[in-house]
């Protein structure tokens, strides 16, 4: 209503003609006055009226941008000052909770491993897992410290790039970086939207601005363009600085969270679940990435600050600068609309954007490289830790486990049952077995060094090891492997080294070749030598020690030289073994053993025969006859009996008593056998039918007592008949006796006819033992113990090849048997 009244009054006044004419004259006078000045006042007023809103908007944008940038700088200062990780209370508390939770998983894993050991499930995996659990349990309890070390390592470079050259105390670091960035961005120039002349007062400056000579269009256009550039520059600075602040803020919180979750991230690597292992890997990737982002960003911030501080020192020619200091960028250096100010701002922003991009990519790449290096190093270290840890753990546990086993063996049935139910028995066996396995692997590695040496070289090497007993044992084991256990008498006293250092297979092969080196047997033999025990007692000890062995496989040992220090001891052992064999085998087998032991020592053979007849077979004439009769079939044995009048008289006397008919000497002359042999020669029946007749006729006889008959001359009319009989008896003996016994019979029948021996061996290998490789090996092996047999095999390429091949297979078979025994023993 009030305004309406005023309007009506103005209307009335303007209706007055005089007043209207006066106003027109006044306006005309003003126009004439203004036209005499530098430019039209109306144009100035119009230009100011149109450009002022844009100028005000520009000032407002500059002010708001300045405040936002100042806020971001303060946030950056706060982040830099608050970059505390391992000492942050929330991190420490959270990490402790995660650590305790991770320890629960360790308990579950230990229970799982314990049941695995008890039930013998995935034993190898459990062994690796146990070591991993122990190592990881230690590392997890130090995970906060380890994470802090990695973060501190990355922060060393970050701090150097930001504060190294000119940083003050740690309390002023945030303020320092905030001020440095403010200077680099030239924040004070954001508020100077228009240039100012320092020679004029503020009032004069405003009047000068009112009466400048710019056209209305230029003034408005420049105001709009400057507003747009002000918005763009402000936005760029705000976004870049905000991204920098956001990245470092995300890094700070990320590292806090990652440190809290560190124990859980490490423990999931123990679980054989791909998803959990992947999560553990992602933790490491993110952790290392966040660590290495900061140094990369810090480097580019350092470059930005260095560029800003040195930009003013750049010199440009006046003519060159004049081209730019016009129009939009024609302002003074006090405003943001100056070419140098714009270039500085763009360079700083460029370095910061480059830092953010490089930080993401290089941080990710650095984390992957560090993780890859850590994995490779961890794998190598892990293998060393696992193998070393297993050796230490198993080595430490082995004495206790062996003690448990021995204690359980002696304990009552009830305790054994409890031990079995609780898994103590199996656990102790498992530890002992693992200890043996570790020793075996280490020993195989040591033995490999000596594989290339021959027997004589190894013997020389063994003698050189005076102090290094383990290496001596390794070389001795290599010799045992090369000689199939027959290492020679000179190393008898070193055999214990094999068992002491875990060369168990080689020790067994030596003891198989020289069972007389049994420790208890040698100790008892020393007592015999010292007069503390008798030979009968030694024979009892031998019988006890050889309880599970086949007496035919135990050889009578050869004696060393009489000057040897162990001669008396081994002589007593020899006498004890002869006495034991006389009690446990047939006289014929004893005779064969004597011939093998004394083939190069006739005087010792004579001595042995007399001792047996005078002591062991003193009251058994039949045993005496069988022994002498078997020895008489060997050239050396026959000569020994012939040269000793006493032995010759005993044998002739016994021969008259026990060899009463020719049929005892030539059982093959049996009438039915000869008639059936003729039918084979005439082609009426097969050789297999003839063998059945031989088996029937010799039903009551011991196959070992039936000799293979010698053949007459080929021109003899009974040659074909007796040849058939001979083949039938050989086949019958092959079916009813061991191959070793058959070999012995062949040697007796062919001691003067090597060609016939060769023919017999080939016939047995090709026909009778055609599909029985083990029988072939035993036959050839027994024949190889005789000089003529060994020569026959060696001179026949076919037999030699078969024997070598079978020998190799036999060694492999024995190795498999030993492995199977070891496996069963562990179970």
Instruction: State the domain count.
Output: 5
Number of strands: 0
Cα-atom radius of gyration: 55 Å
Helix-strand makeup class: mainly alpha
Strand fraction? under 5%
Task: Please report the number of helical segments.
Answer: 35
Reported for the largest beta sheet, the result is: none
Instruction: Return residue spans where pLDDT drops below 50 for at least 5 consecutive residues.
Output: 29-42, 166-171, 193-214, 327-332, 384-397, 400-428
C-alpha end-to-end distance: 114 Å
Helix content: over 70%
Mean pLDDT: 73
Morphology call: rod-shaped
Please tell me about this protein's structure.
The chain has helices spanning 2-15, 17-35, 41-81, 89-119, 123-140, 143-163, 173-185, 202-210, 216-267, 274-311, 318-322, 339-410, 413-422, 424-448, 455-464, 469-482, 495-500, 504-513, 519-529, 535-545, 567-584, 587-597, 602-616, 621-631, 635-643, 645-658, 662-665, 671-681, 687-697, 719-736, 739-749, 754-768, 773-783, 787-795, 797-826. By secondary structure, it is an all-alpha fold. The protein has 5 domains: 1-34; 48-76 and 144-195 and 207-251 and 273-315 and 324-386, no CATH class; 388-449; 463-663, no CATH class; 671-826, no CATH class. Helix 4 (89-119) packs parallel to helix 9 (216-267), helix 19 packs antiparallel against helix 20 (535-545) and helix 24 (621-631) packs across helix 26 (645-658). The chain is rod-shaped, with a radius of gyration of 55 Å. The model is unreliable at 29-42, 166-171, 193-214, 327-332, 384-397 and 400-428 (pLDDT under 50).
């Amino acid at each position: 209503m009030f305004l309406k009244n005023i309007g009506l009054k103005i209307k009335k006044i303007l209706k007055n003609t005089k007043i209207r004419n006066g106003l027109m004259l006044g306006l005309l006078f003003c126009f004439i006055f203004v036209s005499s000045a530098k430019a039209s006042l109306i144009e100035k007023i119009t230009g100011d009226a149109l450009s002022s809103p844009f100028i005000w908007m520009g000032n407002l944008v500059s002010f708001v941008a300045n405040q936002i940038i100042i806020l971001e700088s303060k946030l950056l200062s706060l982040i830099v000052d608050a970059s505390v990780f391992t000492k942050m209370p929330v991190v420490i508390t959270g990490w402790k909770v995660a650590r305790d939770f991770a320890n629960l998983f360790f308990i579950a894993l230990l229970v799982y491993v314990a049941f695995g050991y008890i039930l013998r499930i995935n034993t190898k995996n459990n062994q690796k897992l146990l070591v991993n659990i122990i190592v990881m349990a230690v590392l997890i309890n130090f995970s906060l410290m380890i994470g802090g070390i990695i973060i501190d390592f990355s922060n060393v470079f970050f701090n150097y790039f930001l504060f190294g050259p000119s940083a003050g105390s740690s309390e002023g670091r945030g303020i320092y970086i905030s001020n440095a960035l403010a200077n680099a961005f030239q924040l004070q120039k954001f508020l100077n939207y228009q240039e100012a002349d320092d020679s004029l007062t503020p009032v004069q400056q405003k009047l000068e601005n009112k009466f400048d000579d710019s056209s209305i269009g230029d003034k408005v256009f420049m105001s709009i363009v400057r507003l747009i550039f002000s918005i763009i520059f402000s936005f760029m600075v705000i976004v870049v600085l905000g991204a920098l602040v956001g990245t470092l803020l995300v890094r700070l919180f990320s590292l806090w969270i990652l440190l809290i979750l560190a124990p859980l991230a490490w423990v999931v690597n123990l679980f054989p679940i791909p998803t959990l292992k992947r999560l553990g890997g992602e933790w490491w990737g993110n952790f290392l990435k966040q660590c290495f982002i900061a140094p990369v960003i810090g480097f580019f911030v350092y470059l930005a600050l260095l560029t800003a501080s040195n930009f003013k020192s750049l010199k440009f020619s006046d003519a060159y600068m004049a081209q730019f200091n016009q129009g939009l960028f024609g302002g003074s250096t006090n405003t943001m609309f100056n070419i140098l100010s714009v270039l500085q701002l763009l360079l700083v922003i460029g370095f910061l954007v480059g830092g953010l991009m490089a930080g993401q990519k290089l941080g990710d790449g650095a984390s992957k490289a560090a993780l890859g290096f850590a994995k490779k190093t961890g794998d190598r270290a892990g293998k060393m830790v696992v193998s070393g840890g297993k050796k230490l753990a198993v080595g430490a546990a082995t004495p206790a486990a062996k003690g448990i086993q021995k204690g359980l063996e002696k304990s009552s049935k009830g305790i054994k049952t409890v031990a079995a139910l609780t898994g103590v028995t199996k656990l102790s066996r498992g530890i002992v077995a693992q200890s043996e396995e570790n020793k075996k692997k280490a020993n195989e590695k040591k033995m490999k060094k000596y594989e290339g040496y021959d027997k004589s070289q190894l013997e020389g090497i063994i003698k050189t090891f005076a102090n290094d007993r383990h290496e001596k044992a390794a070389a001795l084991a290599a010799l045992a492997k090369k000689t199939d256990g027959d290492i020679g008498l000179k190393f008898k006293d070193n055999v214990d080294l094999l068992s002491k250092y875990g060369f168990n297979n080689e020790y067994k092969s030596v003891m198989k070749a020289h069972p007389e080196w049994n420790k208890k047997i040698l100790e008892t033999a020393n007592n015999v030598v010292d007069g503390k025990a008798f030979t009968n007692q030694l024979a009892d000890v031998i019988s006890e020690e050889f309880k599970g062995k086949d007496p035919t496989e135990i050889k009578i040992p050869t004696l060393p030289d009489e000057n040897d220090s162990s001669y008396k001891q081994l002589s007593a052992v020899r006498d004890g073994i002869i006495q034991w064999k006389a009690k446990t085998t047939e006289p014929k087998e004893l005779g064969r053993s004597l011939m093998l032991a004394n083939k190069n020592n006739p005087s010792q053979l004579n001595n042995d025969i007399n001792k047996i007849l005078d002591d062991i077979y003193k009251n058994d004439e039949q045993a005496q006859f069988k022994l002498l009769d078997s020895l008489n079939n060997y050239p050396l044995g026959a000569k020994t009996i012939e040269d000793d009048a006493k032995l010759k008289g005993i044998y002739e006397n016994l021969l008259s008593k026990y060899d009463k008919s020719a049929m005892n000497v030539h059982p093959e002359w049996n009438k039915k056998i000869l008639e059936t042999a003729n039918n084979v020669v005439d082609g009426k029946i097969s050789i297999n039918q003839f063998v059945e007749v031989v088996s029937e006729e010799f039903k009551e006889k011991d196959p070992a007592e039936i000799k293979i008959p010698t053949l007459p001359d080929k021109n003899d009319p009974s040659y074909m008949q007796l040849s058939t009989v001979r083949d039938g008896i050989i086949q019958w003996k092959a079916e009813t006796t061991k191959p070793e016994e058959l070999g012995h019979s062949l040697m007796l029948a062919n001691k003067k006819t090597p060609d016939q021996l060769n023919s017999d061996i080939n016939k047995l290998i090709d026909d009778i033992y055609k599909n029985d490789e083990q029988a072939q090996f035993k036959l050839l092996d027994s024949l190889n113990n005789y000089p003529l047999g060994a020569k026959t095999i060696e001179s026949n390429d076919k037999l030699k090849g078969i024997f070598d091949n079978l020998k190799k297979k036999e060694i492999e078979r024995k190795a498999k048997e030993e492995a199977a025994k070891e496996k069963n023993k562990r179970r």
